[in-house]
Amino acid sequence: MATEKELLDTKLERGPTVPEGTAQISGLPAGYVGFLADLKTRIRSAQVKAAFSVNQELILLYWDIGRRILERQRQEGWGTKVIDRLAADLRQAFPDMKGFSSRNIKYMRAFADAYPKEEFVQQVVAQIPWGHNVRILDYVKDPVEREWYIRQTVEHGWSRNVLVHQIESGLYHRKGRATTNFERTLPALQSDLAQQMLKDPYLFDFLSLDEDVRERDLERTLVDHISEFLLELGVGFAFVGRQVYLKVDGQDFYLDLLFYHVKLRCFVVIELKTGEFKPEYAGKINFYLSAVDDHMRHPDDEPSIGIILCKSRSRVIVEYTLRDTSKPIGISAYQLTRSLPEEMKGSLPTIEELEEEFGSIGEAKDK
Predict the structure, then answer these.
(1) Which element (helix H / strand E) includes 238?
(2) How far is 327 from 286, CA to CA, in rounded Å?
């Protein structure tokens, strides 16, 4: 066996070890490694831009196909069956391209009908993938609401599944609807951002809890499902802790839930109440916010914000309660089960209609 000295001599003869992946070329110029790293970064950036450009071109192509079909149908009276023939001919002409099924071409037609202005398609709609656009066409009928979900998808980078979840949960109709005193207690820019951070109501249907759940059980289960909880809270929330301990003048206090919001740059204290809102809840969270600002807030942080989540609340009582409070507080309701949207209720059969339907089926079998 080689001695330790012999191994050391051999290593010195070979020279220093070069990290894996570094080019070993004789006469390598100074700064080459850094130059190579910069080129790799530039190429990866170009790949991302190229992928975005390809998506944009594809969206514009689909929109143009849909627009041309619409024009033919309106001007020359083409029927819907022509789309099936068109799909077959396009697949034969472009066998390596996907997306020319009859179903997808019908989506192209609907897409062009929903967004008649090419400039809007190019500047807004083409920023998200085709699959996202299809889901928005399926689930959202109001043009203003569609644009809102498109812009939110671009801003937050929602996956298709997250987008569908946000649409199904009615985020557009809940976001920014909480009753707050932010306009009076926060600077203008901070106030607007904080208001949009809150929803009303919050949906906790992922918990599978009974309506008579206790506060501590609700709090614990939300933490157990922290991923779903953070998704419902929205972008920017970072979980700090549950039952966070504070000592004030020798007495012990515990915050139900504590978060930090990275965009607002402030702590967010959440208090959970399983009953109807009571005015005294605001006094308690006002005290907590003062304690957090004194004991936990960094000098660069903005003022802490409080959120009270209740099973129900009277808007008038909430407004009276918040009128003269000094700390920024928002109050929202939460739901453990998702109620059926009003627009769907009229489309469901009544008990009488179901009984009549089943009765007619039974009569048909007897015959």
Answers:
(1) strand 237-248
(2) 6
205 burial type by CB count under 10 A (0-12 exposed, 13-18 middle, 19+ buried): middle
Label the pairing between strands 251-261 and 179-180: unpaired
Q: Which residue(s) pair with 237 in the sheet?
A: 261
* Alpha-carbon gap, residue 195 to 205, rounded angstroms: 23
| pLDDT-based confidence at residue 357 (cuts at 50, 70, 90) | very low
Task: Check if the beta carbon of residue 222 is closer than 8 Å to that of residue 231.
Answer: no
Contact 318, 277 (CB under 8 A): yes
Find out whether 270 and 234 touch, Cβ atoms under 8 Å: no
Domains annotated for the chain, with CATH where assigned, are 46-172 (no CATH), 178-343 (3.40.1350.10)
Widest Cα–Cα separation across the chain: 101
The tokens describing 225, both together, are 């499902």
Q: What is the dihedral of CA 240, 245, 246, 251, to 10 degrees?
A: 170
Task: Classify residue 294 by burial, with Cβ atoms within 10 Å: 0-12, 13-18, 19+.
Answer: exposed
How far is 339 from 344, CA to CA, in rounded Å? 11
- Please tell me whether the overall predicted TM-score, pTM, comes out greater than 0.85 for this model: no
Distance of CA 229 to the CA centre of its chain: 12
CA distances from 169 to 211, 224, 290, 337, 354 (A): 19, 21, 34, 11, 28
- Distance, CA of 58 to CA of 132 (rounded, Å): 13
Question: Is the separation of the CB atoms in 36 and 24 below 8 Å?
Answer: no
Alpha helices in the chain (DSSP H): 4-14, 32-76, 81-93, 102-114, 118-123, 130-139, 143-156, 160-168, 171-174, 182-185, 188-197, 215-224, 226-233, 280-295, 315-322, 342-345, 351-366
Flag the least confident range among 199-213, 273-287, 323-337. Answer: 199-213
- Strand pairing class (202-203; 179-180): unpaired
Query: Which tokens go with 308?
Result: 């009270």
Residue 310 is predicted with a pLDDT of 95
